[in-house]
UniProtKB/TrEMBL annotation:
Residues 310-525 form the Peptidase M24 domain. Pfam families: Creatinase_N, Creatinase_N_2, Peptidase_M24, Peptidase_M24_C. Residues 540-599 form the Peptidase M24 C-terminal domain. InterPro entries: Creatin/AminoP/Spt16_N (IPR029149), Creatinase/aminopeptidase-like (IPR036005), Creatinase_N (IPR000587), Pept_M24 (IPR000994), Pept_M24B (IPR033740), Peptidase_M24_C (IPR032416), X-Pro_aminopeptidase_P (IPR050422). One of its GO terms (molecular function) is aminopeptidase activity. The lineage of its organism: Bacteria, Pseudomonadati, Pseudomonadota, Alphaproteobacteria, Sphingomonadales. Belongs to the peptidase M24B family. Keywords: Aminopeptidase, Hydrolase, Metal-binding, Protease. Residues 7-138 form the Creatinase N-terminal domain. This is Aminopeptidase P family protein.
């Protein structure tokens, strides 16, 4: 099965062998993770798609791959139209597509360890309208034909020191116990890998770019915890760190343990715990409480140690990025550089800090038309030369023990066109509108998303992704529950109230298919705001910018900026020079000073 067409044919043959007429293949794992280990990359293996979000549905006579607006171009480049129909989401769902194409009597399979109960309920109802049936499988048929499927990582757990975490695991578990008591619950099942890592102050290496370990945890009403993890991942340092209040079990024992809660009230997150977990608890006689994982919000509200750690990580990361941007301006116009060589150079600058543990995601190194794919991933096959007349977009981040970074900058290779400068400046205006926003405490991100889009809307333009996502503390580069996004963009609207201590990205963009892409991304900290003359009883919030790197002045049309916007940019660049300049030497420092001078 050297081709993806052969793999699709093999899957259909396997489905016929086990009595199924179709099957759904999501890009996730048993923990509903965004980024997954190599062993769980079933969608990529089957279709060739390299994005981080998508689903495939396979029937006997047709197949479809479902992706959102971030991957409109990428999916067409990587997945054969001869085998797959391209279906956009959220405009159409897997359930509605199956309902439209399944016929009466058909049995459509799904892996209950890879879908939520809500998805199962909705999809089963849609198929029932066609007299078709959604059928759980005991063994995933993709795994049956993926003969060289990688094994799950066996990397060891590591301790995340309290000095970086800001709070002990015991304190965090006591808080979870209080949450359970308020709900008269006996236990909560934690399935999200970053929730487990945060609650126990541990980290791992089981998922590329995300320092988590494959595990499950069940926290009891007294704060004691059962951790299900491969025994080989645990050494004496981890045992001593966890203490007697955390009982260790083999990860394979987790499913069976769910049957031991008969008569107990057990909380599980309907968005993060898969259908198989809800089914096992219910069948074992537990009263299942469908409640959001209590770690989700606690993790999003960064404590002072996490904020201070991120500030330190941002300085070293910003210095590395600044050195790289100077390298791009100096070397790329000479020719001979490619998307891969640029990504490698940026990685080298970060590694020279001596603190980099990993990148926080696959670097988006995109020149020319590739920049128009917001989540483009360069490969040996797609690697393009960086040429004069193009815009080069670099979206990247680092994992450091004290913080996770994520930043995007765009550099012109040679002189940019007037259109490029217009579009870049409109994106910058939207970026400034978010950075300077002041809003009531508890405002959802959906209400401020339009701030970033107005300058583009005024020119009849827009971008097809959210404006901002949460970010972890040496954890996931994409972290909820907070977002800045409108309902019709990937992930839907963010109705989560914004609170002081939350970190978010600020990343409006513009993408011209076939030509270029633009995105300006900094990270923000939500902080209390004082408004002179304002209602003293109304708490207000604002954003503090945490990312320090120059924004390319040659791409800015100053005539499009208001005096207030120009003032913000000059203040930001002054802060960049003051913060990053002392970390740089010689020509790098001089170059930064020139880039951070006030606009003419």
């Amino acid at each position: 099965m050297t081709t993806h067409s052969a793999r699709l044919a093999a899957l259909r043959a396997e489905l016929a062998r086990i009595g199924l007429d179709g099957f759904v293949v999501p890009l996730t794992d048993e923990h509903m993770s965004e980024y997954v280990g190599a062993y769980a990359q079933r969608l990529g293996w089957l279709t060739g798609f390299g994005g981080s979000a998508g689903t495939a549905a396979v029937l006997g006579d047709r197949a479809a791959i479902f992706t959102d607006g971030r991957y409109t171009l990428q999916v067409r480049e990587q997945v054969s139209a001869d085998d797959w129909a391209y279906v956009p989401v959220p405009q159409e769902s897997v359930a509605s597509w199956l309902a439209a194409h399944a016929v009466a009597g058909q049995r459509i399979g799904y892996d209950p360890w890879l879908h939520t109960s809500g998805w199962v309920k909705d999809t089963a109802a849609a198929l029932a309208d066609r007299d078709a049936t959604l059928v759980p499988v005991a063994a995933n048929p993709v795994d049956a034909i993926w003969t060289d499927r990688p094994a799950p990582s066996d990397a060891p757990l590591t301790v995340h020191d309290d000095t970086h975490a800001g709070r002990s695991s015991a304190a965090k578990r006591a808080e979870i116990a209080d949450w359970l008591a308020e709900r008269q619950a006996d236990a909560v099942v934690l399935t999200a890998l970053d929730s487990i890592a945060w609650a126990l102050n541990v980290r791992g290496l089981d998922v590329a770019h995300t320092p988590v370990a494959l595990s499950y945890a069940i926290v009891g009403s007294d704060g004691t915890t059962d951790l299900f993890v491969a025994p080989g991942k645990v050494d004496d340092a981890i045992r001593q760190h966890l203490g007697n209040a955390v009982r260790l079990h083999d990860r394979h024992a987790f499913a069976g343990a769910l049957a031991g809660y008969a008569g107990k009230r057990v909380a599980a997150d309907p968005e993060r715990a898969v259908a198989a977990i809800f089914d096992a608890l219910a069948q074992g006689g537990a009263k299942v409480l469908p409640l959001r994982d209590p770690v989700v919000l606690a993790k999003a509200l960064k404590n002072p140690a996490e904020v201070d750690g991120h500030r330190a990580a941002s300085v070293r990361d910003g210095a590395a990025l600044t050195r790289f941007l100077r390298w791009v301006e100096t070397e790329c116009p000479k020719g001979g550089q490619t998307e891969l060589s640029a990504a490698a150079r940026l990685l080298a600058f970060r590694e020279e800090t001596g603190c980099l543990l990993d990148t926080s995601f696959d670097t988006i190194s995109a020149t020319g038309a590739h920049g128009a794919s917001p989540h483009y991933h360069v490969t040996e096959e797609s690697n393009a030369p960086i040429l004069p007349g193009q815009l080069f977009l670099i979206d990247s981040g680092g994992q450091y023990v004290d913080g996770t970074t994520d930043v995007t900058r765009v550099m012109p290779i040679g002189a940019p066109t007037a259109e490029m400068r217009d579009r870049f400046t409109r994106v910058l205006k939207g970026h400034i509108a978010i950075a300077t926003a002041i809003f009531p405490d508890g405002t959802p991100g959906a209400q401020i998303d339009g701030f970033a889009r107005r300058p583009l809307w005024e020119a009849g333009l827009d971008f097809a992704h959210g404006t901002g996502h949460g970010i972890g503390s040496y954890l996931s580069v994409h972290e909820g529950p907070q977002r800045i996004a409108a309902p019709n963009y990937p992930g839907g609207a963010s109705l989560e109230p914004l609170r002081a201590g939350m970190m978010l990205s600020n990343e409006p963009g513009y993408y011209k298919a076939g030509e270029y892409g633009i995105r300006i991304e900094n990270l923000l900290l939500t902080v209390p705001a004082t408004i002179p003359g304002g209602d003293p009883d109304r708490a207000m919030l604002a954003f503090e910018t945490l990312t320090f790197a120059p924004i390319e002045r040659d791409l800015i049309d100053p005539d499009l900026l208001t005096p207030a916007e120009r003032a913000w940019l000059d203040r930001y660049h002054a802060a960049v020079a003051a913060t990053i300049g002392p970390v740089l030497d010689g020509d790098d420092r001089a170059w930064l000073a020139s880039k951070c001078a006030p606009l003419d």
